[in-house]
Every structure is written in C-alpha cells, then in structure tokens.
Amino acid sequence: MNQYDVAIIGSGPGGYVAAIRCAQLGMKTAIIEKYATLGGTCLNVGCIPSKALLDSSHHYEDAVKHFEEHGIEIPGEVKVNLEQMIARKQGVVDQTTKGIEFLMSKNKIDVYHGIGSFKDATHINIAKEDGEETIEAKNIIIATGSKPSSLPFIDIDKERVITSTEALKLKEVPKHLIVIGGGVIGLELGQVYKRLGADVTVVEFMDRIIPGMDGALSKELTKVMKKQKVKFNLSHKVKSVERKGDEVIVKADDKKGKEVTLTGDYCLVSVGRKPYTDGLNAEAAGIKLDDRGRVEVNEHLQTNVSNIYAIGDVVKGVMLAHKAEEEGTMVAEILAGQKPHIDYNLIPGVVYTWPEVAAVGKTEEQLKEEGVEYKSGQFPMRALGRARASMDIDGFVKILADKNTDEVLGVHMIGARCADLIAEGVTAMEFRASAEDISRMSHAHPTFAEAVKEAALAATDDRALHV
Fold this sequence. Notes:
Distance between the termini: 69 Å
Radius of gyration: 24 Å
Structural class: alpha/beta
Number of domains: 3
Number of helices: 14
Shape: globular
Helix content: 25-40%
CATH class of the largest domain: Alpha Beta
CATH architecture of the largest domain: 3-Layer(bba) Sandwich
Oligomer: single chain
CATH superfamily of the largest domain: FAD/NAD(P)-binding domain
C-alpha cells in the first residue's frame, strides 16, 4: 500500500494548487481525480472553455459590427463556424489540462485516476477502471468542488434543457435561448450565443441581475445588455419547464402573480452550483456535512476530523477558482507548520461579459446595512481617451471609502479589461490604502486604469480631473 504525507481528492484549481504547494514544502503527495483529465470543472467545463467561447464570439461580433468603422473591410459575408469555434475551445482546454499534468510530474506528485472514497480517516479507496486500490495518507484534503444546481421540477435532458456543461459544446446556434438565472454563468453564456445570432431571454427570480454585486453594477450591465438586445424578465418565478420535441416551454409568474410563457429551442438552467460530495463516503471517516451538503470546517479549513481538511466549492463561501487556490495554498502551509491567512473580503468577483464586471470589498448596500459612514467616487469609462480609441466606452469605476479615515472599503467596476483592473483594487485594499493614496499614484496614459485614479480623486475630494 502506497503511503503519503498528504492525499488530495479532486484536481480542480483548489486541489492541484494544494498538491503543488504541499510538494514544494517537502511532503510526499498524491492527488486523486475521477475523470480522465486533471483540472476539475474550471479547466474542463467552466472558467477556461467559457472564456475561450467568449473571446471567439467577441471577435465575430467585432468583425460584423465594428471592423468597418475601424476601416477594415471584409469582402463577402462573415460567417460563424460553430464547429471550429468549439474545436478551438477544446484545444485550449486540452493544452491547459496537459499543463497541469506537466506540473504534477515536475513536482513528483503521484496521480491516481478513479473515484476516491474514504475507507476511514487515513485510508482512501480508489475505484479505477482496472480495479480498486487503497492508499494511506497522514493528512487528506477534500477538494471535490461543485456541480450545477437545478430546480426540483426541471428535467435536465442535456439536449434541449441544458446546464453550462452542455452549453459549451452545442452543435448549432440556438434560435431562442432561454436562460434561467441572471448570475455570472447565465449572462456569460447568454452573451456568447447572443453574439452568434441567437435571441436570448434571461429569467431571474430576483429584481436584478448579478444580485450579489453592487446595485450600480447590476443596473449598468442590464442597460448595456439591453442595448445588445438581450431580454430580461426580472422578478419572475419559474414554475415549469417542459420540452415538446425541439421546443422548450418555460412558464413563470411575474411579480404581480401573472403567468408568463416563453418558448425557445434551448433552455439553459444556470441557478447556481452545489457542493459535490457524492461517492465520497464521508461518514466512514466521521466527517460532518452541513444542511446544504457542504463539508463543515473551522477557520483553518479543518474538518471535525483533525487530519482531514476541505477547500473550495465544497466548503462555505463564494464558489470561485481563485478562492479555492488560496485555500489550497493555506492548508498546505498549515500542514507545514506555517501561519497563513486569507482575507475573504478581498477575494475579487468577476463577470466576463463585455463589458467585464469586477468588484472587491463591500458593496454600497452592505455599507448602508452595516451603518458604516462612507463616501463614493465614480468615473465614467467614456471620459477616457483609451476607451474612445478602442470604442469601449460603456461602464465606470466606483470607489467606496470610509468617510472619516478615507480607507478604501470597496472597488466596483464595469468596463473593458475590468477583470484585470480589479487587481489594483485588491492590492490597494490589502495594504489598507486610502482613496487619496490611489489618487496620488501615477497611472499610464492613455489606459483604462486611469479610471481607477479618477474614481479615487472623486472619492477623495470630489475632484476628478476629466469630467
């Protein structure tokens, strides 16, 4: 029986990063993955493939709508080759997952392909295609991630009523895609197919899209996506989804209780994700799960069984790849006797629509609810020379700062490249910067990042320079 210092169940961003860090710190490490490829949801059917399709569809939309204005003329009709687009996406995925294989080999991490389940607190059974194997580990990290949620009355047939996994490999562009859920996944994939020619209707239970983010971002993204001809049915409670042949009929009640019927050829169910612990046999190790199926952990991500830890989507908190990575690193360093920490307030959130949406820290709604006195500074992207040069003028940057100390409490932005720009906000808040600190930093001109400086100026003393 092979013995290890640490074994990790699941090879997503949390699991494989934990494995690498454990190996770097001198531990004999194993990782167990039930699928043929490493990387988990994020690399195989999540973050990476969705961004590949978002980029491809963005290029197509630019060619159809904007090239001519840039002085680029294309003879003949610009057409979508969906098969090639999906193939390119898969190529990106394959290249990325092979990169993880290389990193496992480089760091001398043993990889097992099969379903890992607890025999007891120090032994893991691995059900492989060619039989079963058991390994022993002093410490075990659960990194089994999450899977798409649904509603109890929806039958997901993976053909017409689909999840994000199937939406990444459709063989045709839908005529009318109905998206149930106005969160990150639904909006991103909805925008992909809208660009490629589908009619898209988003049905959301709450009164706004991206409900967990600052209200100003929700309002601006709704406005921009409506300009892009995406339809929104907000404050609608879906009550039935029925497939009839190649049609899908969705019925929902609006906020007044009136029934609304939508008919499309595809329905994407994107109502969130739920922790994945199926087949783990957690009870054999005595591990406690909470009422939502998550593994219960303390502030050190340790379960009630002292040598077993859990990270990422399978524990409480936001379901984000980079949060899982930070947790994987943290557990590895705890096992090595170090004292790492994570400030969960500084885990940024991003929506990869175009314009991109990104945020870190407290929203305006949260500050009001907590009774914190704050000031706000906002600057529009359209006032930037760089934005006008690239024709990406939608959006703004908003900085929230403490009214008395000027410490930055939240940074919220929507616009081109905000997924990258938000790192400036995270850095500033990590070092407890004030709005004035940011406003006095030199930002290259012309860049989108100048909007961060200008928003800081607006928050400092209402003295933005270019509005």
